[in-house]
Amino acid sequence: MSFVSLVFIQSAACTRAPDSGARRVRIAIGGQNQLVYLPTTLARELGLYREEGLDVELQDHAGGAKALQALVGGSADVVCGFYDHTIQMAADQRELVAFVTMLRFPGLVLVTSPQSAATVTSISDLKGKIAGVTAAGSSTQMLLTYLLQKHGVPVDSVSVTGIGASATAVAAVESGKVDVGVMTDPALTIVQRRAPAVRVLVDLRHVEGVKQTYGTSTYPASVLYAKAEWVRANRDTASRLARAIRRTLEWMQTHSAEEIADKTPADFRGDDRTLYVDALKNTMAMYSPDGVMQAEGAKAVHAVLAQSMDKVKNATIDLSKTYTNEFVR
């Protein structure tokens, strides 16, 4: 049984943390050190959760699918993951609601290993190859499936394996364990620095790549989402969370990559601060300036999923129930 078919378990209502009086919230993140999810951690480093009266626990998971499982199982209240999961779950009659949008572009990059760069020059060359994604069922695999179908490559002709999102992903691509990998920064920048021969096949960090791949100028990705019943029961907490993330996004728009790096946990930056700053510079365009979900973007995500997933194609989904902007406007 796939994670999207699991039985929903009612999550516990948000509680106040002892001593501080702050509202305690557990957020599951699908790979905390990836730049696509940076605002969630940066809000903590900037002290914005505390200013909003929140006691936030950040849980690091190996991919968006695992983070969703934590929500379904009741060990998390909120997920920092990709918006497409709310649509997938809606197709299963499970109501999840995204309530603040962090990325207007997905920030994902399909890149070859240095060993495969000469022979894999396009998506069409992937038949019979090995492709790495963060984890089975994650948004990185959804992208890969869409790209294969779009280019007429049978999905079952490509072997798919989980490679994680950080050091394990770098090792898998750099060593040639996989022929291609769906990566995010800073792991991508590390690979490109160590192995300049790698070939970028698809780059969704910027509007040009998004238009080329999806035919739209916006394709929302990282969001905070929760069960609809949790949002209804904890409206004030959801509002405080959304405000903390929106304030973080606004702060990022007015500060340099170097200043952002200074506020990032040292273990996220690693030993090479310059490389991390370069990775930030390569991805700054993907961050939403205001946390608002664009209706055009939501429709684009649904259209892509309907092409690659029969259950989404055959379901009647009210997209207006998969997200709300009420807490960021």
CATH superfamily of the largest domain: Periplasmic binding protein-like II
DSSP, total strands: 11
Q: Which shape, going by the Cα principal axes?
A: globular
CATH architecture of the largest domain: 3-Layer(aba) Sandwich
The CATH C-level name of the largest domain is Alpha Beta
For the record, the count of structural domains works out to: 2
What share of the residues lie within helices?
40-55%
Distance between the termini: 39 Å
Low-confidence stretches: 1-13
Helix and strand composition category: alpha/beta
Mean pLDDT across the residues is: 93
| Largest sheet: number of strands, sense, barrel closure | 6 strands, mixed
CATH topology of the largest domain: D-Maltodextrin-Binding Protein, domain 2
What is the overall number of helices? 15
Query: What portion of the residues fall into strands of 2 or more residues?
Result: 15-25%
Global Rg: 19 Å
Give the helices and strands as they follow along the chain.
Answer: EEHHEHEHEEEHEHEHEHEHHHHHHH
Please, could you describe this protein's structure?
The chain folds into two domains: 3-105 and 220-321, D-Maltodextrin-Binding Protein, domain 2 (3-Layer(aba) Sandwich); 109-203, Periplasmic binding protein-like II (D-Maltodextrin-Binding Protein, domain 2, 3-Layer(aba) Sandwich), CATH 3.40.190. It contains 15 helices and eleven strands. It has helices at residues 38-45, 48-51, 64-73, 84-91, 139-150, 167-175, 187-194, 207-214, 228-233, 235-253, 257-263, 266-269, 273-283, 295-308, 310-313, and strands at 15-16, 23-29, 54-60, 78-82, 96-101, 109-112, 130-133, 159-162, 180-183, 200-203, 222-227. The strands form two sheets. Strands 1, 2, 3, 4, 5 and 11 form a six-stranded mixed sheet that branches. A five-stranded mixed sheet has the order 8-7-9-6-10, sandwiched between helices. Strand 7 (130-133), helix 5 (139-150) and strand 8 (159-162) form a beta-alpha-beta unit. The protein is globular, with a radius of gyration of 19 Å. The chain starts with 14 loop residues before the first strand and ends in a 16-residue tail after the last helix. The relative contact order is 0.19. The model is unreliable at 1-13 (pLDDT under 50).
